[in-house]
Amino acid sequence: MSLPTFGPSVPHVFPLYTAASYEFADLDAIEEVYAGQSGGYIYARDAHPNAGLLANELNTREHAQWGYMTGSGMAAITAGILGVVKAGDHVLYSNRLYGRTTQLIQQQLHRFGVTSASVDCNDLDGLAAALETKPKLLMVETISNPMLRVIDHLAVSRLCRYAGTKLFVDNTFATPLLCRPLEIGADLVMESVTKIINGHGDVTLGYIGGTDPELGKQVNAIISIWGFSASPFDCWQASRSLSTFELRMHASSQNAKALAESLIIDDVLINAIHPNLHHHPDREYADVHFPAGAGHMLGIELVGGRSAVNSFMRAVPELTFTPSLGDVHTTLSHPDSTSHRYESTETKLAQGITPGLIRVSVGIEPIVELQNLFHKGLSAVRQMMATIR
Ligand SMILES: *Cc1c(COP(=O)(O)O)cnc(C)c1O
Question: Which of 23, 30, 133, 192 has the highest CB neighbour count under 10 A?
Protein backbone atom coordinates (compact mmCIF):
# COMPACT_ATOMS: atom_id res chain seq x y z
CA MET A 1 0.00 0.00 0.00
CA SER A 2 1.27 3.51 -0.69
CA LEU A 3 0.13 6.31 1.61
CA PRO A 4 -0.99 9.65 0.12
CA THR A 5 1.48 12.52 0.11
CA PHE A 6 0.50 16.18 -0.06
CA GLY A 7 3.46 17.83 -1.74
CA PRO A 8 5.49 19.76 0.81
CA SER A 9 2.61 19.85 3.34
CA VAL A 10 1.97 17.51 6.26
CA PRO A 11 -1.20 17.21 8.41
CA HIS A 12 -1.27 19.84 11.14
CA VAL A 13 -2.84 17.39 13.59
CA PHE A 14 -1.60 13.93 14.44
CA PRO A 15 -3.63 11.47 12.30
CA LEU A 16 -5.67 8.57 13.58
CA TYR A 17 -4.04 5.25 12.65
CA THR A 18 -6.64 2.52 12.89
CA ALA A 19 -4.49 -0.20 11.27
CA ALA A 20 -4.55 -3.47 13.23
CA SER A 21 -1.20 -4.48 11.72
CA TYR A 22 1.70 -2.96 9.79
CA GLU A 23 3.18 -4.25 6.54
CA PHE A 24 6.81 -4.82 5.59
CA ALA A 25 8.72 -5.19 2.32
CA ASP A 26 10.53 -8.33 3.44
CA LEU A 27 11.77 -10.38 6.38
CA ASP A 28 14.77 -8.12 6.96
CA ALA A 29 12.47 -5.14 7.43
CA ILE A 30 10.31 -6.78 10.12
CA GLU A 31 13.45 -8.16 11.80
CA GLU A 32 14.74 -4.58 12.21
CA VAL A 33 11.59 -3.59 14.07
CA TYR A 34 11.58 -6.71 16.28
CA ALA A 35 15.20 -6.01 17.15
CA GLY A 36 14.35 -2.41 18.05
CA GLN A 37 16.93 -1.08 15.56
CA SER A 38 14.39 1.24 13.98
CA GLY A 39 11.18 2.64 15.35
CA GLY A 40 8.11 1.03 13.90
CA TYR A 41 4.99 -0.90 14.65
CA ILE A 42 4.01 -4.50 13.97
CA TYR A 43 0.68 -5.30 15.57
CA ALA A 44 -1.69 -2.80 17.20
CA ARG A 45 -2.29 -4.87 20.34
CA ASP A 46 1.46 -4.54 21.06
CA ALA A 47 1.78 -0.84 20.20
CA HIS A 48 0.38 1.78 17.83
CA PRO A 49 1.18 5.44 17.06
CA ASN A 50 -1.87 6.97 18.79
CA ALA A 51 -1.18 5.14 22.07
CA GLY A 52 2.52 5.99 21.78
CA LEU A 53 1.88 9.70 21.33
CA LEU A 54 -0.59 9.92 24.22
CA ALA A 55 1.56 7.86 26.58
CA ASN A 56 4.56 10.12 25.83
CA GLU A 57 2.54 13.23 26.64
CA LEU A 58 1.37 11.69 29.91
CA ASN A 59 4.88 10.46 30.78
CA THR A 60 6.07 14.06 30.61
CA ARG A 61 3.29 15.22 32.92
CA GLU A 62 3.84 12.39 35.43
CA HIS A 63 7.67 12.61 35.24
CA ALA A 64 7.62 8.90 34.30
CA GLN A 65 10.48 7.01 32.64
CA TRP A 66 8.00 4.80 30.83
CA GLY A 67 4.23 4.60 30.41
CA TYR A 68 1.54 2.80 28.45
CA MET A 69 -2.08 3.29 27.49
CA THR A 70 -4.63 0.60 28.36
CA GLY A 71 -8.24 -0.04 27.35
CA SER A 72 -9.54 1.23 30.71
CA GLY A 73 -8.39 2.46 34.10
CA MET A 74 -9.10 -1.01 35.52
CA ALA A 75 -6.86 -2.56 32.85
CA ALA A 76 -4.05 -0.21 33.98
CA ILE A 77 -4.56 -1.24 37.63
CA THR A 78 -4.62 -4.94 36.69
CA ALA A 79 -1.49 -4.61 34.52
CA GLY A 80 0.38 -2.85 37.34
CA ILE A 81 -0.56 -5.40 39.98
CA LEU A 82 0.21 -8.36 37.71
CA GLY A 83 3.55 -6.75 36.89
CA VAL A 84 4.58 -6.95 40.54
CA VAL A 85 2.89 -9.94 42.21
CA LYS A 86 2.96 -13.71 41.79
CA ALA A 87 1.28 -16.60 43.61
CA GLY A 88 2.21 -16.64 47.29
CA ASP A 89 2.66 -12.86 47.53
CA HIS A 90 0.72 -10.59 49.86
CA VAL A 91 -0.88 -7.28 48.81
CA LEU A 92 -1.89 -4.47 51.14
CA TYR A 93 -4.60 -2.06 49.97
CA SER A 94 -6.19 1.09 51.28
CA ASN A 95 -9.62 0.68 52.83
CA ARG A 96 -10.81 3.63 50.69
CA LEU A 97 -10.33 2.45 47.11
CA TYR A 98 -12.55 2.64 44.06
CA GLY A 99 -15.06 -0.22 44.47
CA ARG A 100 -13.85 -2.23 41.48
CA THR A 101 -10.21 -2.01 42.63
CA THR A 102 -11.18 -3.45 46.00
CA GLN A 103 -13.04 -6.26 44.23
CA LEU A 104 -10.06 -6.94 41.96
CA ILE A 105 -7.73 -7.35 44.93
CA GLN A 106 -10.16 -9.10 47.30
CA GLN A 107 -11.94 -11.40 44.87
CA GLN A 108 -9.83 -11.90 41.75
CA LEU A 109 -6.25 -11.96 43.08
CA HIS A 110 -7.19 -14.61 45.64
CA ARG A 111 -8.00 -16.97 42.78
CA PHE A 112 -4.33 -16.76 41.75
CA GLY A 113 -2.97 -17.44 45.23
CA VAL A 114 -2.29 -13.80 46.15
CA THR A 115 -3.43 -12.89 49.67
CA SER A 116 -4.48 -9.39 50.70
CA ALA A 117 -5.42 -7.20 53.63
CA SER A 118 -6.84 -3.70 53.82
CA VAL A 119 -5.36 -0.86 55.85
CA ASP A 120 -6.28 2.70 56.79
CA CYS A 121 -3.56 4.74 55.02
CA ASN A 122 -4.54 7.88 56.94
CA ASP A 123 -3.37 6.12 60.13
CA LEU A 124 0.41 6.05 59.65
CA ASP A 125 1.12 3.97 62.79
CA GLY A 126 -1.40 1.36 61.63
CA LEU A 127 0.13 1.42 58.15
CA ALA A 128 3.66 0.96 59.56
CA ALA A 129 2.44 -2.06 61.56
CA ALA A 130 0.69 -3.56 58.52
CA LEU A 131 3.86 -3.11 56.44
CA GLU A 132 5.70 -5.37 58.91
CA THR A 133 4.00 -8.31 57.17
CA LYS A 134 6.30 -7.38 54.21
CA PRO A 135 3.62 -7.11 51.53
CA LYS A 136 4.86 -7.05 47.95
CA LEU A 137 2.65 -4.11 47.03
CA LEU A 138 0.58 -1.30 48.59
CA MET A 139 -2.30 0.08 46.53
CA VAL A 140 -3.57 3.58 47.44
CA GLU A 141 -5.43 6.56 45.94
CA THR A 142 -3.97 10.07 46.29
CA ILE A 143 -7.41 11.55 47.01
CA SER A 144 -9.90 8.85 47.90
CA ASN A 145 -13.29 8.18 46.40
CA PRO A 146 -15.76 9.44 47.60
CA MET A 147 -14.75 10.89 51.00
CA LEU A 148 -11.77 12.76 49.48
CA ARG A 149 -9.32 11.69 52.16
CA VAL A 150 -5.85 12.86 51.14
CA ILE A 151 -2.96 10.55 52.00
CA ASP A 152 0.30 11.89 53.39
CA HIS A 153 1.97 10.59 50.26
CA LEU A 154 5.47 11.57 51.42
CA ALA A 155 5.17 9.53 54.61
CA VAL A 156 3.41 6.61 52.88
CA SER A 157 6.16 6.47 50.27
CA ARG A 158 8.91 6.54 52.95
CA LEU A 159 7.26 3.73 54.91
CA CYS A 160 6.99 1.61 51.75
CA ARG A 161 10.67 2.16 50.88
CA TYR A 162 11.67 1.11 54.39
CA ALA A 163 9.54 -2.06 54.18
CA GLY A 164 10.68 -2.95 50.64
CA THR A 165 7.07 -2.74 49.47
CA LYS A 166 6.25 -1.41 46.00
CA LEU A 167 3.88 1.57 46.07
CA PHE A 168 1.17 1.79 43.39
CA VAL A 169 -0.84 5.03 43.34
CA ASP A 170 -4.20 5.53 41.64
CA ASN A 171 -3.89 9.25 40.89
CA THR A 172 -7.24 9.64 39.08
CA PHE A 173 -8.78 12.24 41.44
CA ALA A 174 -5.58 14.30 41.81
CA THR A 175 -4.26 14.00 38.23
CA PRO A 176 -0.63 14.92 37.40
CA LEU A 177 -1.58 18.59 37.66
CA LEU A 178 -2.01 18.35 41.45
CA CYS A 179 0.28 15.47 42.31
CA ARG A 180 3.06 13.43 40.67
CA PRO A 181 3.47 10.32 42.85
CA LEU A 182 6.55 9.05 40.95
CA GLU A 183 8.45 12.19 42.02
CA ILE A 184 8.04 11.30 45.68
CA GLY A 185 9.08 7.67 45.34
CA ALA A 186 6.01 5.72 44.17
CA ASP A 187 6.90 2.79 41.89
CA LEU A 188 3.77 2.87 39.76
CA VAL A 189 1.13 5.47 38.98
CA MET A 190 -2.11 5.06 37.06
CA GLU A 191 -4.83 7.36 35.79
CA SER A 192 -8.33 6.54 34.64
CA VAL A 193 -8.08 8.70 31.51
CA THR A 194 -11.83 8.06 31.15
CA LYS A 195 -12.26 10.79 33.79
CA ILE A 196 -10.97 14.38 33.76
CA ILE A 197 -7.86 13.84 31.64
CA ASN A 198 -10.14 13.13 28.68
CA GLY A 199 -12.90 15.14 30.32
CA HIS A 200 -15.59 14.89 27.66
CA GLY A 201 -17.23 11.63 28.71
CA ASP A 202 -16.56 9.87 25.42
CA VAL A 203 -13.63 7.49 25.88
CA THR A 204 -12.73 4.60 28.18
CA LEU A 205 -8.95 4.56 28.71
CA GLY A 206 -6.24 4.02 31.28
CA TYR A 207 -2.60 5.03 31.68
CA ILE A 208 0.10 3.33 33.71
CA GLY A 209 3.60 4.73 34.24
CA GLY A 210 6.68 4.11 36.32
CA THR A 211 10.41 4.64 36.71
CA ASP A 212 12.09 1.21 36.86
CA PRO A 213 12.73 0.08 33.25
CA GLU A 214 12.57 -3.64 34.14
CA LEU A 215 9.11 -3.19 35.64
CA GLY A 216 8.18 -1.21 32.52
CA LYS A 217 9.11 -4.13 30.27
CA GLN A 218 7.08 -6.49 32.42
CA VAL A 219 4.00 -4.21 32.39
CA ASN A 220 4.31 -3.73 28.61
CA ALA A 221 4.39 -7.51 28.09
CA ILE A 222 1.36 -7.98 30.35
CA ILE A 223 -0.66 -5.37 28.46
CA SER A 224 -0.01 -7.16 25.19
CA ILE A 225 -0.30 -10.78 26.40
CA TRP A 226 -3.40 -10.32 28.57
CA GLY A 227 -4.87 -8.03 25.90
CA PHE A 228 -5.29 -4.81 27.90
CA SER A 229 -4.42 -2.54 24.94
CA ALA A 230 -6.15 0.75 24.14
CA SER A 231 -8.06 1.55 20.96
CA PRO A 232 -6.43 4.02 18.54
CA PHE A 233 -9.62 6.09 18.30
CA ASP A 234 -9.88 6.52 22.08
CA CYS A 235 -6.22 7.56 22.25
CA TRP A 236 -6.68 10.01 19.40
CA GLN A 237 -9.69 11.63 21.12
CA ALA A 238 -7.88 11.79 24.46
CA SER A 239 -4.79 13.37 22.82
CA ARG A 240 -7.00 16.18 21.61
CA SER A 241 -8.59 16.56 25.05
CA LEU A 242 -5.18 16.65 26.67
CA SER A 243 -4.41 20.01 25.11
CA THR A 244 -7.08 21.61 27.34
CA PHE A 245 -6.59 19.34 30.36
CA GLU A 246 -4.74 21.86 32.53
CA LEU A 247 -7.26 24.62 31.78
CA ARG A 248 -10.21 22.36 32.59
CA MET A 249 -8.64 20.94 35.74
CA HIS A 250 -7.79 24.42 37.06
CA ALA A 251 -11.28 25.74 36.34
CA SER A 252 -13.06 22.71 37.87
CA SER A 253 -10.86 22.68 40.97
CA GLN A 254 -11.45 26.37 41.58
CA ASN A 255 -15.18 25.88 41.07
CA ALA A 256 -15.26 22.91 43.47
CA LYS A 257 -13.50 24.90 46.20
CA ALA A 258 -15.70 27.98 45.71
CA LEU A 259 -18.89 25.91 45.60
CA ALA A 260 -17.89 23.96 48.72
CA GLU A 261 -17.14 27.20 50.58
CA SER A 262 -20.50 28.68 49.62
CA LEU A 263 -22.54 25.75 50.96
CA ILE A 264 -24.09 26.31 54.36
CA ILE A 265 -24.46 23.32 56.65
CA ASP A 266 -27.98 23.17 58.11
CA ASP A 267 -30.70 20.67 59.03
CA VAL A 268 -31.00 19.54 55.37
CA LEU A 269 -27.41 19.71 54.12
CA ILE A 270 -25.70 17.90 56.99
CA ASN A 271 -22.19 17.71 55.56
CA ALA A 272 -20.05 19.09 52.74
CA ILE A 273 -16.88 17.24 51.82
CA HIS A 274 -13.91 18.91 50.16
CA PRO A 275 -10.25 18.75 51.26
CA ASN A 276 -9.98 22.57 51.46
CA LEU A 277 -12.93 22.96 53.86
CA HIS A 278 -11.95 23.86 57.43
CA HIS A 279 -13.59 20.75 58.94
CA HIS A 280 -12.01 18.24 56.54
CA PRO A 281 -9.62 15.91 58.43
CA ASP A 282 -6.82 16.31 55.84
CA ARG A 283 -7.17 20.02 55.25
CA GLU A 284 -3.73 21.02 56.54
CA TYR A 285 -1.96 18.47 54.40
CA ALA A 286 -4.02 19.38 51.32
CA ASP A 287 -3.41 23.11 51.80
CA VAL A 288 0.38 22.62 51.98
CA HIS A 289 0.96 19.82 49.48
CA PHE A 290 -1.70 20.61 46.87
CA PRO A 291 -1.06 24.29 46.15
CA ALA A 292 -2.85 24.03 42.78
CA GLY A 293 -6.09 23.04 44.56
CA ALA A 294 -7.48 19.83 46.00
CA GLY A 295 -9.39 18.70 42.94
CA HIS A 296 -12.72 18.93 41.20
CA MET A 297 -14.62 16.51 43.42
CA LEU A 298 -17.02 17.46 46.17
CA GLY A 299 -19.42 15.56 48.41
CA ILE A 300 -22.71 16.68 49.89
CA GLU A 301 -24.68 14.72 52.43
CA LEU A 302 -28.43 15.23 52.71
CA VAL A 303 -30.69 14.35 55.57
CA GLY A 304 -33.48 12.06 54.39
CA GLY A 305 -31.35 9.50 52.53
CA ARG A 306 -32.37 8.10 49.19
CA SER A 307 -35.62 10.07 48.80
CA ALA A 308 -33.80 13.35 49.52
CA VAL A 309 -31.25 12.45 46.84
CA ASN A 310 -34.09 11.78 44.41
CA SER A 311 -35.71 15.15 45.22
CA PHE A 312 -32.42 16.94 44.65
CA MET A 313 -31.78 15.20 41.32
CA ARG A 314 -35.32 15.77 40.03
CA ALA A 315 -35.19 19.47 40.92
CA VAL A 316 -31.94 20.09 39.00
CA PRO A 317 -31.84 17.97 35.84
CA GLU A 318 -29.10 20.35 34.63
CA LEU A 319 -26.79 18.54 37.09
CA THR A 320 -26.84 15.20 35.31
CA PHE A 321 -26.90 12.01 37.37
CA THR A 322 -24.38 9.67 35.79
CA PRO A 323 -22.06 7.17 37.45
CA SER A 324 -18.81 8.71 36.21
CA LEU A 325 -16.81 11.89 36.84
CA GLY A 326 -14.45 14.40 35.32
CA ASP A 327 -16.74 15.79 32.65
CA VAL A 328 -16.67 19.46 31.59
CA HIS A 329 -20.27 19.60 32.85
CA THR A 330 -21.05 19.11 36.52
CA THR A 331 -22.39 15.62 37.18
CA LEU A 332 -23.77 13.84 40.23
CA SER A 333 -23.21 10.31 41.38
CA HIS A 334 -24.50 8.23 44.26
CA PRO A 335 -21.69 6.08 45.73
CA ASP A 336 -24.08 3.99 47.85
CA SER A 337 -25.90 2.63 44.80
CA THR A 338 -23.25 2.92 42.05
CA SER A 339 -19.44 2.96 42.63
CA HIS A 340 -19.66 1.22 46.03
CA ARG A 341 -22.79 -0.82 45.28
CA TYR A 342 -21.08 -4.19 45.81
CA GLU A 343 -19.63 -3.37 49.21
CA SER A 344 -21.42 -4.37 52.40
CA THR A 345 -23.52 -1.80 54.24
CA GLU A 346 -21.12 -1.97 57.22
CA THR A 347 -18.08 -1.31 55.02
CA LYS A 348 -19.84 1.61 53.38
CA LEU A 349 -21.01 3.17 56.63
CA ALA A 350 -17.54 2.73 58.15
CA GLN A 351 -16.22 4.94 55.31
CA GLY A 352 -19.05 7.46 55.70
CA ILE A 353 -20.93 6.38 52.56
CA THR A 354 -24.54 6.89 53.57
CA PRO A 355 -27.69 6.74 51.36
CA GLY A 356 -27.86 10.58 51.58
CA LEU A 357 -24.37 11.13 50.12
CA ILE A 358 -24.10 12.68 46.66
CA ARG A 359 -20.71 12.77 44.99
CA VAL A 360 -20.36 15.83 42.79
CA SER A 361 -17.90 16.08 39.92
CA VAL A 362 -17.66 19.82 39.41
CA GLY A 363 -17.36 21.09 35.85
CA ILE A 364 -16.27 24.35 34.28
CA GLU A 365 -19.62 26.21 34.26
CA PRO A 366 -19.73 29.78 35.63
CA ILE A 367 -19.66 29.47 39.43
CA VAL A 368 -22.80 31.59 39.93
CA GLU A 369 -24.76 29.19 37.73
CA LEU A 370 -23.61 26.26 39.86
CA GLN A 371 -24.40 28.03 43.12
CA ASN A 372 -27.94 28.77 41.87
CA LEU A 373 -28.50 25.17 40.83
CA PHE A 374 -27.34 23.86 44.21
CA HIS A 375 -29.57 26.35 45.95
CA LYS A 376 -32.52 25.14 43.87
CA GLY A 377 -31.76 21.47 44.59
CA LEU A 378 -31.39 22.04 48.31
CA SER A 379 -34.63 24.04 48.43
CA ALA A 380 -36.45 21.11 46.85
CA VAL A 381 -35.06 18.78 49.52
CA ARG A 382 -36.07 21.24 52.24
CA GLN A 383 -39.63 21.32 50.89
CA MET A 384 -39.81 17.54 50.63
CA MET A 385 -38.54 17.14 54.20
CA ALA A 386 -41.09 19.69 55.45
CA THR A 387 -43.95 17.64 54.00
CA ILE A 388 -42.85 14.42 55.73
CA ARG A 389 -41.94 15.97 59.08
C1 LIG B 1 -13.10 5.32 37.28
C2 LIG B 1 -12.00 5.00 38.21
C3 LIG B 1 -11.21 3.86 38.03
C4 LIG B 1 -11.44 2.89 36.90
O5 LIG B 1 -11.25 3.46 35.66
P6 LIG B 1 -12.04 2.96 34.33
O7 LIG B 1 -11.46 3.81 33.26
O8 LIG B 1 -13.49 3.16 34.58
O9 LIG B 1 -11.71 1.50 34.19
C10 LIG B 1 -10.19 3.63 38.93
N11 LIG B 1 -9.97 4.47 39.97
C12 LIG B 1 -10.71 5.57 40.17
C13 LIG B 1 -10.40 6.46 41.32
C14 LIG B 1 -11.75 5.88 39.30
O15 LIG B 1 -12.51 6.96 39.52
Answer: 192
